[in-house]
Amino acid sequence: MCNIFSRLFKKANKEDDLHKKECKINELCSKLMLPDKGKTLLKHLHVTREDGFNDFTILTQAWHESGRFIKVIGEYNYWGIKKPRDWTGKVYKVRTHEYINNKRVNMDCEFIDFSACGMAVAWWIDLVKRLYPDAYKNRNNPVLFFEGLVSGKYKYATDPFYFNKLNTLYKLISTNAYLLQLLDIV
């Protein structure tokens, strides 16, 4: 009988700890004015950590590409990943812009509409591994990672100031006390 009570007590304590953790996450997300989509990505950072990514590598790029998680494309396309030829899943058509000969040109493009955040994170990791080897090699160093996105055979973005924008944003968010606390929890 004592074993049953002991297990129930441990389970209740674990549930209480999870509830406190969730409340703290919600409090910090509120202070950051972070939308639910941003909170969802934070909960999947363990996947990128297991692959050796610095948290700010993924957060900075997702933050930038999605306009602080307010303009996530479809359900979970945090990184503005366009539809490749072999994609047979759901797509989302978006009015966007590219830089052609250093001139901003508006256009309609099809983007992947991921059905789950875990799927989006896994796809993004694979995309970086395959197309941006210099970035992947430096996935634990945000500044070198950003440089790798724009310096290899393929460029992640056509914006000539993409690296500077990511680097500036990284410096801003990597010193945010609320975000640092949040990353310690998730």
Please characterize this protein's 3D structure.
It contains nine helices and two strands; from the N terminus they run ααααββααααα. The protein is mainly alpha-helical. The protein has a two-stranded antiparallel sheet. α1 (2-32) packs antiparallel against α9. The protein starts with a helix and ends with a helix.
Largest sheet: 2 strands, antiparallel
- The name of the CATH topology of the domain at 14-71 and 116-185 is Lysozyme
Backbone structural class? mainly alpha
Helix content: 55-70%
**CATH class assignment of the domain at 14-71 and 116-185:** Mainly Alpha
Rg to the nearest angstrom? 19 Å
Looking across the biggest beta sheet, what order are the strands in?
Answer: 1-2
**Which spans of ≥5 residues are poorly predicted at pLDDT below 50?**
none
User: Helix and strand string, N-terminal first?
Assistant: HHHHEEHHHHH
- Which of globular, elongated, flat, extended, rod-shaped describes the shape? globular
What's the tally of helices? 9
Average pLDDT over all residues: 88
- Assembly status: single chain
The count of DSSP E runs of length 2 or more, i.e. the number of strands, is 2
Instruction: Please identify, by name, the CATH architecture of the domain at 14-71 and 116-185.
Output: Orthogonal Bundle
What is the first-to-last residue Cα distance? 36 Å
Report strand %: 5-15%
